[in-house]
Specification:
The complex is a heterodimer of chains A (113) and B (113). By secondary structure, chain A is mainly β. Chain A contains no helices and eleven strands. Helices cover 0% and strands 53% of the residues of chain A. In chain A, strand 4 and strand 5 form a beta hairpin. The radius of gyration of chain A is 13 Å and the shape is globular. Chain B is mainly β. Chain B is 0% helix and 53% strand. Chain B contains no helices and eleven strands. In chain B, the strands form two sheets. In chain B, strands 2, 4, 5, 9, 10 and 11 form a six-stranded mixed beta sheet that branches. In chain B, strands 1-3-8-7-6 form a five-stranded antiparallel beta sheet, with no helix packed on it. The chains are: A mainly beta (113), B mainly beta (113). At the A-B interface, strand 4, strand 5, strand 9 and strand 10 of A face strand 5, strand 9 and strand 10 of B.
């Protein structure tokens, strides 16, 4: 079974731009969660989508948004990029029920200049 | 104060040593606990998953939970250079946010031949 895939793997943007990251979950998984990983703050939860609906949300500004498509693929968008948005963005997929294992993708490394 | 505290290390040990990795948490509502391993340039992968207080063993790995002290540990026996990675403890968020994982800072472990 193919794992979680994320595209692109690396991205360089400048302040003020916007960016869209993509995540394809494991086949059959309906939940996709997004996390931001930085050296200073560690891994922080952004949001979770389940069956095309946002089910949980972390404490990030509204510049961070996401969506999920009917095939469970998910996209995350960051508008008006700031230097502090430089991070590894990870998505994780699961079946979506309590105690189901979350499987992480390799991440997208975003650098904001 | 963060909900989950973990010493970021780094921790450097010789091959064959017993490694002890620890986390403390503040929310007594946390019911189950996970350990993830993250190799450089990869996403985290689930190592161990445990509910109750006590020990759970899986090969060279033992997860220990002490709910009365809000303290969890991961022990690695006969450590190998291939165990060199960052180890993250994680707990699911409160009330229905079970795919909203709260991570510790991660402990970087280096095992030297």
């Amino acid at each position: 079974k193919a794992g979680v895939t994320q595209t692109p793997r690396y991205l360089i943007k400048t302040r003020g731009q916007q960016v869209t990251l993509s995540c394809s979950p494991i086949s059959g998984h309906r939940s996709v969660s997004w996390y931001q990983q930085t050296p200073g703050q560690g891994l922080q939860f952004l949001f979770e989508y389940f069956s095309e609906t946002q089910r949980n949300k972390g404490n990030f500004p509204g510049r961070f948004s996401g969506r999920q498509f009917s095939n469970s693929r998910s996209e995350m968008n960051v508008s008006t990029l700031e230097l502090g948005d430089s991070a590894l963005y990870l998505c994780a997929s699961s079946l979506g029920q309590e105690k189901d294992t979350q499987y992480f993708g390799p991440g997208t490394r975003l650098t904001v200049l | 104060q963060k909900e989950v505290e973990q010493d970021p290390g780094p921790l450097s040990v010789p091959e064959g040593a017993i490694v002890s990795l620890n986390c403390t948490y503040s929310n007594s509502a946390f019911q189950y606990f996970m350990w993830y391993r993250q190799y450089s340039r990869k996403g985290p992968e689930l190592l161990m998953y445990t509910y109750s207080s006590g020990n759970k063993e899986d090969g060279r790995f033992t997860a220990q939970v002490d709910k009365s002290s809000k303290y969890i540990s991961l022990f690695i026996r006969d450590s190998q250079p291939s165990d060199s990675a960052t180890y993250l403890c994680a707990m699911p968020g409160r009330s229905g946010g079970y795919n909203k994982l709260i991570f510790g800072a991660g402990t970087r472990l280096a095992v030297h031949p």
